[in-house]
Amino acid sequence: MKTMLGATLCLLPNLLCAQAPDIRLGAWEMTYSSPDGPGPMVAKECLTKPDLGEFSGGLFKGNDGDCKARKPPTFKGNTWTVSKECKHGLHVRARYTLDSPERLRGSFVLSDAKGEGEISMKVSGRWTAATCKAGR
């Protein structure tokens, strides 16, 4: 299973190559929380250079091979937004801010094609090491 960091770390292919963010590669600790959820979920993630194309897409790694950007992502300073639509009817809207090369925060909303059943999540991350442990 792919991790959420590499693209909720993949909403955009290839554009980031031209506009790569100043972000540290390696091990990250990501915290995901939802107002309707049981509590925060902490995950260890590994961000590699190949992940950057996905990362720019909005931090949503997963089975998104059937998803396409609804419109081009926008980049303003250290903040990027993206909107993606998947064949199975899932819509994803995300906004992320890179506070420093070692810290990020953001949010994303998942909804069905009718805009019903929304799930919103907040995410924050911090870089922890230059190398990732095996299996992450």
Radius of gyration over alpha carbons? 14 Å
Detail the poorly predicted runs: 5-18, 57-64
The tally of beta strands, per DSSP, is 7
* Terminal Cα span: 10 Å
Strand content: over 45%
* Portion of residues within helices: under 10%
* Element-level helix/strand string: EEHEEEEE
* Largest β-sheet summary: 7 strands, antiparallel
Q: What class, by secondary structure content?
A: mainly beta
Give me the number of helical elements: 1
Overall mean pLDDT stands at: 75
- What is the topology, as strand order, of the major beta sheet? 2-1-7-6-5-4-3
Shape: globular
What does this structure look like?
There is one protein chain. About 5% of the residues lie in helices and about 45% in strands. The chain is mainly beta. The termini are close together. It is globular and about 40 Å long.
Summarize this structure as a short list of keywords or feature phrases.
globular, mainly beta, 3% helix, seven-stranded antiparallel β-sheet, 7 strands, 136 residues
Which secondary structure elements does this structure contain, and how are they paired or packed?
Layout: E1 26-33, E2 41-47, H1 52-55, E3 67-76, E4 79-86, E5 91-100, E6 103-111, E7 119-129
Antiparallel strand pairs: 1-2, 1-7, 3-4, 4-5, 5-6, 6-7
